[in-house]
Amino acid sequence: MKGYVFHGPGQSAWEDVPDPAIKEATDAIVRVDAVTICGTDLHILKGDVPEVRPGTVLGHEAVGEIVDVGADVRTVRPGDRVLVSCITACGRCRYCREGMYGQCRGGGGWILGHLIDGTQAEYVRVPYADLSVHPLPSALDSKDAVLLADIFPTGYEVGVLNGHVRPGDTVAVVGGGPIGLAAIATAMLFAPERIVAVDLAAARLEAAKRLGADAVADAREAPEQLVSDLTDGLGADVVVEAVGVPETFELCTRMVRPGGHVANVGVHGKPATLHLEDLWIKNITITTGLVDTYSTPTLLRMAAAGRLPTGQLVTHTLPLAHMEEAYDVFGRAGDTGALKVVLGGEQHQEVVPVEAA
């Protein structure tokens, strides 16, 4: 089969790799129908995730069909159409028993495309299949469903739920990439008074408006002042950090009101300054986290009912074999306007930007 293989920083290729096979009785083999690319994959290619060994097939998000299962798998069988979660869960360790699947100590957590071969291939082996794949409603097409493997649960759990968004809140989302946009879309479920989106790219701010942001701000133009003006000087009730650089984290701590929440979602590669000399007196709650995907079944039901705007985040689609082109498009998002690039799916086409609504 073919897969997209990491060979070291700056080196990768769509090439022949061995077919996956059942190794444990809890495994499933999935024929991949649709995949997408995550910003974390770009970090891997830059050499920022040293745990990923050369020779690893990348990717941790997919939709496909079960073609084989181990003897202990009970919830799916060959022929089932499933979502492959970005998080693998053993279901038995202390963290899995608490629903913290991202911290699994039994051989799960984020392993696909990280510690074992991932989903950007024609077939993928999924350990602990009973808890790590989800049967898909027939009403949900592959292009929409694949966004529920990672970005929607991440934006919802690590951003909206960790931030304790409530009706009437002012929510600021710093970062208008796919995760930030998913946080905006799912924050809307809690009827906030207003959502403010902050980013550097005009195209991403326009996307934020389409998904429900009431106000947008260029990150270079004192967005904390806009938030202050909108809240009579109080600040935002919840600020979601969805970039992962020191400047944006520090911006979030300046935008939050006393008693508010900063929910950090961004993947940080450098230290950020925590200004406790200003924050110690403000009753601020700061949360961090890797997605656990406990919300995936709920989000799947909502997407099937048309309550989540998943399709609005897909800007480009390509055939699965065009993986190298897809990485180029996604890696140059500032030039291409890419949000999510989906490969495969029920309708294949050459790479074409989706027109703005």
TrEMBL record:
Cofactor (UniProt): Zn(2+)
Annotated keywords: Metal-binding, Oxidoreductase, Zinc
Pfam families: ADH_N (PF08240), ADH_zinc_N (PF00107)
Enoyl reductase (ER) domain sequence ranges: 8-343
PANTHER family for this protein: NADP-DEPENDENT ISOPROPANOL DEHYDROGENASE, ZINC-TYPE ALCOHOL DEHYDROGENASE-LIKE
Family: Belongs to the zinc-containing alcohol dehydrogenase family.
Protein name, per record: Zinc-dependent alcohol dehydrogenase family protein
Organism: Streptomyces violaceus
Biological classification of the source: Bacteria, Bacillati, Actinomycetota, Actinomycetes, Kitasatosporales
